[in-house]
Amino acid sequence: MRHPGGVPYHPTTARAEPDPRLDPYRERAGALFRQDEQVGVLYLRIGTWSQQVGGHLWWRRWSEPREQAEGYLAFTAGGFDDFVEDLQTLGDELADWGMGRFLYRGELLHVTWLDDATSRQTRVDTFGLDPNPAVDRLH
Length: 139
Fold this sequence. Notes:
Elements (H helix, E strand, L loop, with lengths): L27 E7 L2 E13 L2 E5 L2 E4 L3 E10 L4 E7 L4 H8 L2 E4 L2 E7 L2 H10 L7 H4 L3
Antiparallel strand pairs: 1-2, 1-8, 2-5, 3-4, 5-6, 7-8
């Protein structure tokens, strides 16, 4: 919806410029381990967001769209959790993910990243998430 003067009420639907550091984790699942025991599974989805930076009543100003990581966790002992982090706060996590580490609530777990087919199956079977057609057609 736009105000008659052309000022957007909602952020643009444009996708953010993809950050290549996130490429290995787009629509990717990983098995989480505490030592040798699997304690859960993680699923990452990379999305786009914009922040309202100004506006009043019928108009808004929005930041440029940026990517963010949306994480979903399911634990073998039962229970689910989720998180959202933007790229500005993901620096250390990206380094950890690349070395097979995942920090969860102060505990450093080991993550083994799963292949494309297993990641898609985990997305549906474990988390019930809808497919991401833009990413699925690439794999």
